[in-house]
Specification:
Layout: H1 8-18, E1 22-26, H2 27-38, E2 46-51, H3 58-66, E3 70-73, H4 76-84, E4 92-95, H5 102-113, E5 117-120, H6 123-136, E6 140-145, E7 167-168, H7 172-182, E8 186-190, H8 199-216, E9 222-224, H9 242-260, E10 265-268, H10 272-275, E11 279-290, E12 297-301, H11 310-314, E13 320-323, E14 329-332, E15 343-349, E16 370-373, E17 380-383, E18 406-409, E19 415-419, H12 424-428
Parallel strand pairs: 1-18, 2-3, 2-10, 3-4, 4-5, 5-6, 6-7, 6-8, 8-9, 9-10, 12-15
Antiparallel strand pairs: 1-11, 11-12, 11-17, 13-14, 13-17, 15-16, 18-19
Helix pairs in contact: 6-7, 8-9
Bound molecules: pyridoxal-5'-phosphate (PLP).
């Protein structure tokens, strides 16, 4: 039992052939997750959109879209990027903090005419986009800030009073008056309360949101419950049961239909859930150091905060696999009792000049130890749970390290390069010098 969905020998092969650090994604795992989401129980239809900020690699967007999922874009550039990947604007919803002006405004309007749905997230956005949408008869979506959120950490809670995503409850009536004056129709209501939070909060959000639809949104035919399904990256964590959440939503939607005669389509927009556990970061051990008899043993990797910022940003924990150069698994945090290498408490750091460049940090930013085998230099340390918010979120040119390659492990057993390693020339190409 390695705990990896891809054979460690293949991960080692990826590291040897494409160099490290590199990301390897498991096509079968991604397809399986898409099927699970698309199969969520529903009564009057379900749309699932992949939140592409979790991982916006073109091949992965195409893979996910090929299963029938749409795209949730968090910026106009993400929407443009999805279109560049061949995804029809009609399958995209844009939910953004940006306010479209100038060229962006023109491109936004063109995408909306081609079917992209715009999710209004502020009064200012409504003033800017509303007249255009009303003139063209395009329905808009309304992102409501429900005043209550839930996230795995404070920085991933998007629904409490310390975050400003969407139009706050206390401003809804003002927004609706403005919309009525502009002739805007809201055909969808949306809320996303945060990432990786409590499933109970997710259920409560469904009830709250349906209450808002009933009270304020007579034209809404769609209700989006957002993303944020919790994924277990570590052995002791538990993933959200999306079939159970779907069952709950289905029941509430049916009650709503009995009460109001309105048959609402459900939408969900997971990012993490689709990608997190389908991705691995393969790094090489470049050095081994210590801090004395009372100190610690440090494993220095050729990839740290610049390829996975989540531990530094959130204190997130990712599982480690120590894999020998030839592909033999030396230890897996999912099966430490079966480790062949010598186990001990160790600290994993990267190569950036930054004491926080460690992937073994707690939520307070303190370095902690983790149990794993003793690798030799040249062996691999594979970081699991690295499919979402790793490649897409990382400050990859920090310390002038180049952006890492990404590989897809296909269902036919081959490795396909889906992003080449960035070159140093590309890092500096837009700098002009004196
Ligand atoms: C980030 C985001 C998501 C996805 O969140 P996950 O926790 O990755 O599932 C969904 N909807 C919106 C609006 C988002 O900003």
């Amino acid at each position: 039992m390695s705990g990896t969905s891809i054979d460690p020998a293949v991960l080692a092969q990826a590291g040897r052939e494409y160099g490290t650090p590199c990301y390897v994604y498991d096509e079968a795992a991604i397809l399986q997750r898409c099927r699970e989401v698309l199969g969520m129980p529903n009564s009057f239809g379900l749309h699932a959109r992949f939140a592409m900020k979790a991982n916006s690699n073109r091949a992965l967007l195409q893979l996910v879209a090929g299963t029938g999922m749409g795209i949730d874009a968090s910026s106009l550039n993400e929407a443009r990027r999805a279109v560049l990947a061949g995804i029809a604007p009609g399958r995209i919803m844009l939910t953004t903090q940006e306010v479209p002006e100038g060229n962006d405004r023109r491109d936004l309007e063109e995408l909306m005419l081609r079917g992209m749905r715009y999710n209004v997230c502020s009064l200012r956005q409504l003033k800017l986009v509303g007249p255009f949408a009303a003139a063209r008869g395009l329905g808009l979506s309304f992102r409501i800030h429900p005043g209550v959120g839930s996230g795995e950490s404070a920085t991933r809670n998007t629904g409490d009073d310390y975050s400003c995503f969407g139009i706050h409850l206390t401003n809804v009536e003002e927004a609706l008056r403005l919309a009525a004056a502009l002739g805007v129709r809201f055909t969808a209501l949306h809320s996303h309360i945060g990432s990786g939070g409590d499933p109970e909060k997710w259920r409560e959000n469904i009830d709250r949101e349906l209450g808002f639809v009933e009270k304020w949104f007579p034209d809404a035919t769609t209700v989006s419950f957002g993303g944020g399904f919790k994924v277990a990256r570590m052995p002791n964590e538990k993933s959200a049961d999306i079939a159970a959440l779907g069952d709950y939503a289905k029941g509430r939607i049916e009650d709503f239909a009995r009460r109001t005669g309105r048959k609402l389509t459900i939408e969900v927009e997971p990012g993490t859930f689709i990608m997190a556990n389908a991705g691995y970061l393969v790094t090489s051990v470049i050095d081994l150091k210590g801090t004395g008899p009372n100190g610690f043993e440090f494993i220095v990797l050729d990839g740290g905060m610049e390829v996975n910022t989540r531990p530094l940003l959130y204190g997130s924990r990712h599982p480690f696999y120590v894999v020998a150069r030839d592909g033999t698994l030396l230890s897996s945090e999912f099966a430490l009792d079966q480790a062949t290498g010598q186990l001990d408490q160790r600290i994993v750091v990267g190569r950036c000049c930054e004491s926080g460049d460690s992937q073994t940090l707690d939520a307070g930013g303190h370095i902690t130890t983790r149990v794993m085998a003793h690798p030799g230099t040249g062996d691999f340390v594979v970081v699991g749970g690295a499919g979402a918010y790793c490649s897409s979120m990382s400050p990859f040119n920090y310390n002038s390290h180049v952006q890492s390659p990404e590989l897809l492990f296909r269902t036919d057993g081959t490795l396909l390069a889906i992003r080449r390693r960035q070159t140093l020339e590309q890092v500096v190409q837009n700098e002009t010098g004196l």
